[in-house]
Fold this sequence. Notes:
Two copies of one chain form a homodimer. Chain A has 215 residues and is of the alpha/beta class.
Amino acid sequence: MKTIIFLFYDGMTALDAIGPHIVLAHLPEVQVKHVARKAGAIQTDAMQLTLIAEHSIEDVSRADVLVVPGGGNATTLEQYPEVLEWIRAIHQTTTWTTSVCTGSLILGAAGLLQGLSATSHWAVMDRLKKWGAIPMQQRVVEAGKIITAAGVSAGIDMGLTLAAKIAGETVAKRIQLGIEYDPHPPFDCGSVAKAAPAMVQALRAAFECRFEKEK
Amino acid sequence: MKTIIFLFYDGMTALDAIGPHIVLAHLPEVQVKHVARKAGAIQTDAMQLTLIAEHSIEDVSRADVLVVPGGGNATTLEQYPEVLEWIRAIHQTTTWTTSVCTGSLILGAAGLLQGLSATSHWAVMDRLKKWGAIPMQQRVVEAGKIITAAGVSAGIDMGLTLAAKIAGETVAKRIQLGIEYDPHPPFDCGSVAKAAPAMVQALRAAFECRFEKEK
């Protein structure tokens, strides 16, 4: 039985977690736990959407897989050194340590990305350098046992990539078919390379504002 | 201020709701509410993942947009005629009534799909006929003010399609870039047309089992 842990925290982006969750929770012989600094209601970054963490970090000391989602300002977690300490300790026990979106900045703050290639949400990619990581503008980046995914929706791609590593391609493909993941985005503008430069610039500025307290 | 309502229920699939939620919650001038038969903790169909519905159906009498997610056996809601009655009443007030995955079977049970084209998860598509709907193997199907999406992950495509209708293409594109929705599925097997026939058959049989109580 493999244990897959999702770190939850106030201000997290729900889809960052729920994307890989739908994939990894369908693996055979896994148990999934949702863990936060304190067990209980977790306020996501969107419109009163509330998730429950049924475990506190002090109750969980190991995992086969750790998934750290991002959030509007993921650096809020840096206020809690006990969480970063817990991430470091769990990482010692994992087969795979993963992040989605700005969750990679949390792995960075925990000291796990020093000298490693990693990705993040495109708008905050350069902030990876603060933690000694090498930013890669890719959907999913593997560096040893650490797998980082790009912004928000990239967690689904990361989840399927990881599912294949854990349980083989056939299982991963079955899950992909089960969630009917045959995406047809209505617009072709989901990456920096494809979107209008003015839109990229405006959105980057908006993201910078959210992170400005860090400066 | 537009009101966007997500119907939550025990056994729902989290991504069915969270996919469109990440999109629609980023529209300008909207309020989003999560509504269930009884307000409180909602157990999704995967591994103790729990969401909170902060409103009961009796507290909510109108919406500009209604989103009904699917679930492992969405027909469980048919046990609650008051929920179907509520869906019918809300539908009278909406600009858009929508579903993701087997959520369309709930709209069907509420009597909203009679004579209309609709989609659902591929494995239960034919069950739409029970409710007088015309099954369409498409990612997103529009029929008047009702928009149905295919399985699970299709809710993101539906959300963006709807976002463009509500707030214009520029806003929808900005949201798509914000959630970095430039999908790169690791395998090309996310639809019936693309997956191996044996895998399709096995998964269809598994879905049929979940719905067998209905027979």
